[in-house]
UniProtKB/TrEMBL annotation:
Residues 6-271 form the Glutamyl/glutaminyl-tRNA synthetase class Ib catalytic domain. This is tRNA glutamyl-Q(34) synthetase GluQRS. It holds the Pfam family tRNA-synt_1c. NCBIfam families: PRK05710.1-4. The keyword Nucleotide-binding applies. It comes from the Bacteria. It is an enzyme of class 6 (ligase). Its EC number is 6.1.1.-. InterPro entries: aa-tRNA-synth_I_CS, Glu/Gln-tRNA-synth, Glu/Gln-tRNA-synth_Ib_cat-dom, GluQ/Sye, Rossmann-like_a/b/a_fold. Belongs to the class-I aminoacyl-tRNA synthetase family. It comes from Devosia rhizoryzae. The keyword ATP-binding applies. PANTHER family: GLUTAMATE--TRNA LIGASE (PTHR43311), GLUTAMYL-Q TRNA(ASP) SYNTHETASE (PTHR43311:SF1).
Length: 281
């Protein structure tokens, strides 16, 4: 069997916090237990928010935690052409359609929420005629491309994926995926020719990732990833969902909420061992 391959894939839109430290430590520990390799991937498709200085800070923090990885590090912003190629394959299957709706329009017309709590897309632009689509594209209206979930599911049928837990060495179990609860997700954004869902699937396959370790907050997103893997003919990894670190408010730590960064803790005199104790690792 091929040697297990794992990855830690932060976005450089801010500095790492204790939640990221837990996720990184889980990944490197799992790689050790599986006698595999842990890779570092920089997921920086959001060119407006992701900054080189945050990438450097991530590398520094991970080295400080005594973690290492094979070089070169995969940088997503250098791979847009590959993601566009994958999207074109889906377009050739008649599974992508242009969407011209604004966030306000989607929120006002939404028929519910997706697993992340965001307004569920009502499918407005799915019903546009080809003439209307061409007219708006030629006019240069802001556009993103969505996956037609109903068509995609009709193409692949029932979907399953494999999970392990409570440790990566436990017996694998099969779960059913439910991509329909996400609606017609965006696969190509208005500003870049990809999305998180599309790029992560393409890169996991390119790096030969056999085990994906991710927080439980990303468990539901696996539905979409398994669907894309099936549509694109890619191998599906084994998934391991780890616990989350919560703040005093009971919510997960996050950059957007200003959770204290590892760099701030280091400035206060914390050691890498202090971090390991804090995350109970």
């Amino acid at each position: 069997m091929a040697k297990p391959q794992l990855r830690f894939a932060p976005s450089p839109n801010g500095c790492l916090h204790l939640g990221h430290a837990l996720s990184a430590l889980v990944t490197w520990d799992a790689a050790k237990k599986l006698d595999g390799t842990a890779h570092l991937r920089i997921e920086n498709i959001d060119l407006n928010r992701c900054k080189p200085e945050f990438t450097e800070a991530i590398l520094d923090d991970l080295h400080w935690l005594d973690l290492d990885w094979p070089e070169p590090v995969l940088i997503q912003s250098e791979r847009f052409e590959l993601y566009a190629d994958a999207a074109n394959r889906l377009r050739d299957m008649d599974l992508l359609y242009p969407c011209f709706c604004s966030r306000t329009e989607i929120a006002e017309a939404s028929v519910g929420t997706d697993p992340d709590g965001a307004p569920l897309y009502p499918g407005t632009c799915r019903h546009l005629s080809n003439a209307a689509r061409i007219e708006r594209l030629e006019r240069g209206d802001p556009v993103q491309f969505r996956l037609d979930i109903e068509k995609a599911l009709n193409r692949v049928g029932m979907l399953t994926f494999t999970v392990v837990g409570p440790t990566v060495l436990d017996r694998p179990q099969v779960r059913y995926a439910r991509p329909e609860r996400w609606g017609d997700v965006v696969l190509q954004r208005k500003d870049v020719p990809t999305s998180y869902h599309l790029s992560v699937v393409v890169d996991d396959a390119a790096q030969g990732i056999t085990h994906v370790t991710r927080g439980r907050d990303l468990e539901a997103a696996t539905d979409i990833h398994v669907l894309l893997q099936m549509l694109l003919g890619l191998q599906s990894p084994i998934y391991f969902f780890h616990r989350l670190l919560l703040g005093d408010d009971g919510e997960k730590l996050s950059k957007s909420k200003g959770s204290q960064s590892l760099r701030d803790l280091r400035a206060e005199g914390w050691t890498a061992e202090d971090v390991r104790r804090a995350v109970k690792f």
